[in-house]
Amino acid sequence: MKNRKKQNTTKLALIAGAAALAALTPQAHAQSSDALIDKLVDKGILTSDEAKDLRVESDNDFKTALQAKTGMPDWVTAYKIYGSFRGRFEQFSGNNPAAVTKTRERYRLFFGITVSMQDNLETGFRLGSGDTKGSAAQGNPLSQNSTMGNNWSDKGLYVDLAYGKWTPINGGDWTVSTTFGKMERDVVFGNSTWMIIDPDLTPEGGAVQATYAINNKNSLTMTGAGLVLASGISGTTHQPTMFGGQMAWNANWTDKWSSMLGASFFSIVSPQQLSNANVTQINQGNTRYTFGPHIGAPIYNFNPIIGDASVTYLMDTFPFYAGNCPIMFKGEGMHNPGAPKNNDGYWVGATLGKAGAKHTWDLSYRYEYLEADAWYDQLEDDDNCAYYQNAPAGGGSSGYVGGTNIKGNLIKIDYSITDSVMFSASCYLNSLINPSVNGTTEHQSDAMHFFADIMLKF
Is there a contact between 246 and 215 (Cβ–Cβ < 8 Å)? Predict the structure, then answer.
C-alpha cells in the first residue's frame, strides 16, 4: 500500500513537472520528461505499463500547455526559436600597383522559427540582414552581411528561409523527406563544399532526401532536387533551372575511424538565359557572351560530375584541446563535360579539432584550383576572390571579385569561447589561373582576403 502511494505521488509530481517544463521550454519537453521517466523505470519506481501511460499523460499536458501559452492550434507539436548575431572586421589587399587596401566593418543577423506539426510536417522561416544587390533592391544571395556606414543608415532585412517539409517515412531503416521553398543549402547540396556552393546560399525549388541505415556502422544518403535560377523571363519558354542528385556513403569503421565517399551530378538548363538582364551578377570567371541579347550569360553548358571523400580519426587527447580531438582529411574534384576546356576543379585539405562546445577549437587548411568553366561562377564562394585591375567584358567588375578561374589557399581557425560565443579568423591567398578573362588580360592578380568574426548564437 505504501509502495503504491509512493508511485502515485511520483506520477503526479512528474506530470506536473512535465507540464511546467512544457510551458517554459517547449522544444526540450520530450527529451527531458522521457529521460526522467526512464530513470524512474530503472530504479523500479514505475513499471513499464505505468511509464507508457505516464508518457501519454505527459504529452497531453504538454500540448495543452503549449496551446495555452502560444495560442497555436492543437496540430502544432513543437516550435523552436533560434538566431545569431555576428560582427566582422574585413580587409582586402593585393600586390598590383592599382590595388587599394580595403577595410570594412560588417554585421550579420539571423532570426528564425521552426514549427513541427502532426503527420510529420514541418515549416519554418528565417530573416537575415544584408546589403541590397541588383536593380530590384533584392538581398545579396551570397551574403547576409550588412556593411556599417553611410551615416548610420537603416539596413535591410530579407527572407532568407521559407519552406515546408514533409517526412512520410521515418522509421526502421529508412527516412524520406520532401522540402519545397527557399531552403538550407545542405538540403540540396549535402556533403558538397564551398567549391560547389557558397555557404550563405539558400536554394529555391524542391528536393527529396532519403537516408538508409545499412547497419549500425554504415548508411547511405541520397538527394534529388529541381531548383529555379530565374523565372518569368519574357520572350522565351526556356527558364533557367538546375537539376541534380547526390549520394554519399558514411561509415564508422571503429570508435576511432570514420569515412565518407560521395558522388554528385548537376545540370543547368538554358544557361544562356542567365544574362545581366535576368539575374544579379556578383561573381565572375566563366567564359561569357560579351554582346547580343545574352550579354553576361555563360557561353558553355554546366553538367559537372563531382566526387568527394573524407577520412576522420578521433584522437584521445591533443594539446590545448578539451576532450577527444578529431582530425579529418578531405578532398573534392569535379569535371564539366559541358565546356571544351578549362573545365576542371579540385581542392584538398585537412581540419584538426572541431569547434562548437565551450573551449573547443578547429584549425583548417585548404588548397583549391577551380578553372573558369568548371562550374557556374554565381554559385561559388564569394569570399574566395582574386584581384581584377580591369572589368572583364560582358558586365564584369574590377577590384576584388570571387568566382571561378581562381587558385589559392585558405587558412581558418575557430574557437568556442563559450557554448554560445565563437571567434573565427579566415585568410584567403589567391590569384587567377588564366590571366586572359573575356577579352581582358590581367597581371598581378594576387589578393589576400582576411576577416575576423565574433558570433553570438541562441
Answer: no
Query: Within 13 Å and on the Cβ side, how many CA atoms surround 206?
Result: 4
Model-level pTM?
A: 0.85
Q: Are strands 257-269 and 241-252 parallel, antiparallel or unpaired?
A: antiparallel
Name the β-bridge partners of 124: 114, 163
pLDDT tens per residue across span 7-21: 444 454 444 444 444
Q: Are residues 280 and 337 in the same domain?
A: yes
Compute the distance between CA of residue 82 and CA of residue 99 in angstroms, rounded to an integer.
40
Q: 3-class DSSP state for residue 36?
A: helix
| pLDDT 10s digits, 436-454 | 888 888 889 999 999 999 9
In a shared domain, residues 27 and 126? no
CA distance 115 to 65: 16
- 25 plus 143 within the same structural domain: no
Report the C-alpha dihedral over residues 183, 184, 187, 190, rounded to 10 degrees. 150
Q: Cα separation of 70 and 409, whole Å?
A: 49
The neighbouring-strand residues paired with 228 are 241
DSSP state of 141: T
- In this structure, are residues 305 and 335 in contact, taking their beta carbons and an 8 Å threshold? yes
Instruction: Answer whether 366's CB lies under 8 Å from 354's CB.
Output: no
